[in-house]
Design brief:
2 strands; two-stranded antiparallel ribbon; single chain
Length: 215
């Protein structure tokens, strides 16, 4: 990572869920909520031991973010957007930690939060963040919109990522509004629709731009 404080922050967020689980484990109920339906109601409970599996996801992701650039054939390009990559890694790991925190809250005080609205709002913030940074990402094999056409042509990569940034920024705003106004089932459908539509648009446009440049 570019700065030592980024590494420290990444691992604080990565290990916080496990640390919290170690502290709270004895007081957690034997059965904890692990999945919620479209209506925001819990539809699966499980043993609190299962939280150990959830707790290792954030550290695993932190390790993945650390090593992926070293494996990328275009690893030198990461230096051109290292700050954005580090920020993305921290944001994703923090997002996972907040989801774990949600499980703790719902275990001790069921119904305290509207789970659907909470997750939709978090997704909105994540998409706003990604929308602001995608246009700065340089060609690589692991991070960004990787289609055969973006990987093959830097100009197509840049155009596609500028488009992706705009689409995800506005999707993020839409998610935040939805978290305030829509029923929980509708929020989930909106999330899925936005992700699918924006992904399809990015794939199609990367192909069109590539064919225009390479008829």
């Amino acid at each position: 990572m570019k700065h030592k404080w980024c590494m420290v922050l990444l691992w604080v967020f990565a290990l916080a869920p496990l640390a919290a689980l170690a502290i709270l484990y004895g007081s957690l109920p034997d059965q904890v909520p692990l999945h919620w339906g479209l209506d925001g109601a819990v539809d699966r409970y499980g043993s609190k031991a299962e939280l150990l599996l959830l707790g290792v996801i954030a550290p695993a992701m932190a390790l993945l973010f650390m090593f992926l650039p070293k494996l990328d054939p275009r690893k030198n390009n990461y230096e051109k957007f290292q700050g954005y990559y580090d920020s993305f890694a921290i944001a994703v790991v923090a997002f996972l930690g907040l989801l774990m925190g949600l499980t703790f809250i719902e275990s001790f005080r069921p119904g305290t939060l509207s789970v659907g609205r909470f997750v939709t709002a978090l997704m909105g913030l994540l998409f706003l963040f990604l929308g602001n940074m995608l246009g700065k990402i340089k060609p690589n094999f692991f991070f960004g919109v990787r289609t055969p056409w973006t990987i093959s042509d830097p100009d197509v990569w840049n155009k596609t990522h500028r488009l992706a940034g705009m689409l995800w920024f506005w999707s993020g705003l839409l998610f935040l509004v939805a978290a305030l106004l829509l029923p929980e089932a509708a929020m989930f459908l909106l999330l899925m629709a936005c992700i699918l539509i924006t992904t399809l648009v990015m794939i199609v446009m990367s192909y069109i731009w590539f064919r225009k440049k390479h008829p």
